[in-house]
Write a structure and sequence with these properties.
Length: 344
């Protein structure tokens, strides 16, 4: 075949090949911007993040805005209105990570309304990644974050008084599970957190990851952690590689559920590494869930962990141990809640 014939043939076949590849999903343009968040309350979080993303803003600013939305919501279990530890103190955990693998985190932070912004300040102005307890609070105050009263919200006060009757630490599988949430409602407003019929309510975490119009990824997590935990306990949420991991070449992941199980397998780092090996976000989350269950199948029946992941093509997926994990997605194509698949 001479050069002219070859060029002619290539010109004819190239569009066909391109069409075929795009059907196969190989060379499709990435869906961006996009933001995905844990649980159904992620709809409000995504809306706040979308304000930034839709104006071609940076994913980092979007995830901070999303996390702040939850921290600002009155009577919400994520921020200062969350449930306390067994000593009656609300302690907050949060982290943030950007497209350059810069990261910042706080753990056991008391009386500060926006732990995610303190985490970002640590990331951007210090040589460190994680500050804890009194040191984290001192850093926050020195950087102009107001010190709040530390008083429990009315619903937290009541729940804590009830809990003290038995003082039993027993994580609940899905407090956010949709059918269960219909059983009762704590507080008012469209995104007020729900609680079980028996009043139990002991975790809630907001994790979100986003990709902006420049194809850059970031993520953030904010939580009051497991209610009635031992004072000083830190879960997966502020631990980079456990509750959140971002690798701008590959993808990003976050988690919710019993943090100790996530820490044991470096959960979100594992999910991102599975994506690096070529797995879809959903399959990567599934493999991480299987790792937890394999370690202790009997115990796994009594606990919940859910992973949520996004890759550089804007594809997303989730997987949980038990039924009930849900997540919220916002892009130009959709704005909705999805049920996660589950293993048991
Ligand atoms: N993962 C959080 C923790 O262990 C709790 C949650 O997801 O609700 O503190």
């Amino acid at each position: 075949m001479n050069r002219r014939k070859f060029l002619h043939l290539s010109a004819l076949t190239a569009p066909l090949l391109a069409a075929k590849k795009s059907i196969a999903g190989n060379f499709e343009a990435p869906v961006k911007p996009i933001v995905i968040s844990t649980w159904d309350s992620g709809m409000a979080v995504n809306a706040a993040a979308w304000e930034v993303l839709s104006k071609k803003g940076r994913a980092l600013d979007a995830v901070e805005a999303g996390a702040m939305k939850m921290e600002n919501t009155p009577d919400c279990c994520v921020g200062l209105d969350g449930y306390p530890d067994r000593d009656g103190i609300v302690t907050l955990d949060s982290c943030i990570m950007d497209e350059y693998s810069n990261c910042g985190a706080v753990a056991g932070l008391e009386r500060i309304k926006h732990p995610v912004s303190v985490a970002r300040k640590i990331m951007e102005t210090t040589p460190h990644v994680l500050l804890v307890g009194a040191g984290a609070q001192q850093f926050a105050v020195q950087n102009g974050f107001p010190l709040e009263s530390g008083e429990l919200s009315e619903s937290a006060k009541k729940a804590y008084a009830d809990w003290l009757k038995k003082s039993e630490y027993k994580p609940v599988i899905n407090i956010e599970n949709l059918p269960v949430r219909q059983a009762g409602k704590k507080g008012n407003g469209p995104f007020a957190p729900m609680f079980f019929e028996d009043g139990s309510f002991n975790h809630d975490t907001m994790g979100l990851v986003a990709m902006d119009s420049s194809n850059n990824l970031s993520g953030a997590v904010t939580t009051s952690g497991m209610a009635y935990k031992i004072h000083g306990r830190v879960g997966d949420s502020p631990i980079i590689g456990a509750g959140l991991f971002v690798d701008n070449e590959v993808g990003a992941a976050t988690s919710s559920g019993l943090g100790e199980e996530v820490i044991r397998i470096c959960g979100t780092h594992l999910v991102v590494e599975f994506m690096r090996q070529g797995l879809s976000p959903e399959m990567a989350c599934k493999k991480a869930v299987e790792r937890i269950v394999k370690r202790n199948p009997k115990k796994a029946k009594e606990l919940q962990v859910g992973f949520l992941a996004l890759n550089k093509k804007g594809q997303y997926g989730a997987y949980a141990i038990q039924k009930g994990f849900v997540f919220s997605v916002k892009s130009e194509r959709e704005n909705q809640i999805h049920q996660s698949k589950f293993l048991l």
